[in-house]
Amino acid sequence: MARKPQKSAKSAPVPTPANPGNGNGPIAVAEERPTSGGQKPPKQASAKLEAIPRVASVPPEPAGPPPQMEPMRTSKTEVIKRHDMWDQSLRQLDDVARLISLDPNIHSMLRHPKRTLEVSVPVRMDDGHVEVFQGYRVHHNQYRGPVKGGIRYHHEVSMEEVKALAMLMTWKCALMNIPYGGAKGGVVVDPRKLSEGENERLTRRFTSEIMIVIGPDKDIPAPDMGTNQQTMAWMMDTYATLLGHAVPQVVTGKPVSVGGSLGRIEATGRGVSYITAAIAKELNLNLKGLRIAVQGAGNVGSNAAKALHELGARVIAISDVAGGVYDESGIDPFKLFAGMGPKDTVQSQHPGKKISNEELLKLECDVLIPSALGGVITERNAGEIKAKVVVEAANGPTTPEADKILEERRIVVVPDILANAGGVTVSYFEWVQGLQYYFWELDEINTRLHKVMSKAFLQLWALARRERVSLRTAALMISVNRVAEAAKSLGLFP
Ligand code: NAD
Question: What's this model's pTM, rounded to 2 decimal places?
Answer without folding.
Answer: 0.86
